[in-house]
Design goal:
There is one protein chain. Among the domains are: about 110 residues, Rossmann fold, CATH 3.40.50.300; about 60 residues, no CATH class. Helix content is about 30%, strand content about 20%. The protein has ten helices and eight strands. The strands form two sheets. The protein has a four-stranded parallel β-sheet. Helix 8 runs antiparallel to helix 9 and helix 9 crosses helix 10. The longest helix has 16 residues. The protein is elongated, with a radius of gyration of 24 Å. About 20% of the residues are buried.
Amino acid sequence: MDNASDGQKSERVVYLVPEVSLTGFKKRAGPCGLMPFIESGKLLVRTLSSVEDIPLSDERIRRAASGAHVFLDTCTRFFDGDEQSAQDAKKFAATLFALQRAGARTLTGAHHSPKAFGVADSISLEAVLRGSGDLGAMLSTCWAVRQTDPKLNKIYVKNVKPRDFEPVEPFEIVGRPWIDKEGCFHMSHMPGMAVRTNAPKPDSDELMAARVLKATGIPNREIAEQVGVTIRCVQKWEAANKLRPKANGSTGEFQTPNPD
């Protein structure tokens, strides 16, 4: 939600993150170079460690939000009611609009996606926002964020709701090792160059067990019996080369079942 069309700089940033402790936040803030801004009062942070639970409608929050960019991480923690309820979504929107009237420059919220989004083919506003469609209706813009490589922390980013502006094409950023070394992400694919992919599914326990047994020379039928799958399933894994050891020579973390 945007209330900063006059081009003036904000006075501060207010970051409300009730799902993370103060200690956990400091571990993030240090490498990202945020501590000087906290010490100077330019960045106001409220975490899980705060003694008092203060709602967004509290006058103290409104005063802090005046002239500030406000971040809610995550929106769910500030939602009163059922995410699926259009009526409750409208009440949440009214609370945010009240913060805008109090002088908040922008309101940015992190929000959970439905569980199916990780493997969904469609990346649209409806696909990425969990809950009532009224949540998406109130937004000025929405960016979908999908992790495509957990090991490198590669993130595919796409704008799924541009209101009154032309967004850049989807792009990809990568976190490791740059987050630890430099405190920021690096651009791995420029806008328009990123290819949408789904995060690879981890091997099932059954597949890893079958891979271990296959390496010992056990016949497919016996593998199927020990692992608890059909012989046809084992044959499909073998045809797809899934029973071969990994490229690094490992067969997975699964331990060989005890035949007893």
